[in-house]
Design the sequence.
């Protein structure tokens, strides 16, 4: 059986996608909707967000900070708050796998 596909961010490297998914799921679950992501967590989240297949469109004018917001079906997701105040939610799973829609 293969070792899995490594996930490499500037701040941390995961041996496989499963480890990265678990790490970011735990991070997401530490916050309640409406809460701003800590600067320590934002370091890792920034690197993850850069892996999103639609990153160029999602980053817009630049990111000021990240927060957690309510998502569909009583779940939550990460949200990038841009410098102009607009918001763009994104899936950490899509960032890990880098799979487009």
Sequence:
């Amino acid at each position: 059986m293969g070792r899995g596909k490594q996930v490499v961010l500037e701040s941390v490297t995961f041996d496989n996608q499963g480890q990265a998914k678990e790490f970011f799921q735990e991070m997401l679950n530490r916050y309640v909707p409406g809460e701003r992501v800590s600067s320590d967590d934002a370091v890792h989240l920034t690197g993850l967000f850069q892996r999103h297949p639609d990153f160029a469109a999602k980053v817009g004018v630049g990111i000021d900070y990240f927060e957690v917001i309510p998502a569909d079906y009583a779940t939550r997701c990460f949200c990038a708050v841009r410098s102009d105040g607009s918001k763009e939610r994104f899936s950490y799973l899509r960032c890990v796998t880098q799979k487009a829609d």
In short: The chain has a mean pLDDT of 92. Helices lie at 17-29, 39-49, 55-59, 92-97. The chain has one domain: 7-97.
